[in-house]
Amino acid sequence: MRFRAFAEGREVATRIYYSTGGGFILRDGQIRDPRPLKPVPRAFSSADELLHIGHEHAKATWQIALENEKAWLAKRKFAPMCAAFGM
Fold first, then answer.
1. Which has the closest alpha carbon to 13: 3, 23, 26, 28?
2. pLDDT tens digits, residue range 39-60?
3. What burial class does residue 71 get, using C-beta atoms within 10 Å of its C-beta: 0-12 exposed, 13-18 middle, 19+ buried?
4. Parallel, antiparallel, or unpaired for β 2-7 and 24-27?
5. What is the pLDDT of residues 75-85, one digit of tens each?
6. Please, are residues 27 and 15 in contact by the beta-carbon 8 Å criterion?
7. Cα separations in angstroms, 61 against 15, 51, 76
8. Which value, to the nearest 10 degrees, does the dihedral of the CA atoms of residues 28, 33, 34, 36 take?
9. Percent of the chain whose pLDDT exceeds 90
10. Rounded to whole angstroms, how far apart are CA atoms 16 and 33?
11. Are the C-beta atoms of residues 64 and 56 closer than 8 Å to each other?
12. Is the pLDDT confidence value at 16 over 70?
């Protein structure tokens, strides 16, 4: 996503941000550490792998993502988020 700021018709600032997945965002030029924050129960690196995991474990993609995100977030932060969505 590109943000541009203008003053008196001139561009005075611009920033570019990229979504890297898992709720993470990097500014243009930043380098992402390729290691995950914590090991996740259902790691995958492509849509094909995700679909295979879902089929193998009889889970929807959102369920796999939820399991992985639980591994990244502290329980005290995760529980209120789940409660807000009735989970």
1. 3
2. 888 988 888 999 999 999 999 9
3. middle
4. unpaired
5. 666 667 667 66
6. yes
7. 32, 7, 24
8. -120
9. 39
10. 19
11. no
12. yes
Residue 5 pairs in a beta bridge with 13
Q: Where are the beta strands (DSSP E) in 1-87?
A: 2-7, 10-21, 24-27
The pair phi, psi for residue 19, each rounded to 5°, is -80, 125
pLDDT band at 35 (very low <50, low <70, confident <90, very high): low
Domain boundaries, the chain: 2-28+39-84
Q: Tell me which of 67 and 84 has the higher pLDDT.
A: 67
Name which of 6, 37, 12 is nearest 22 in CA terms. 37
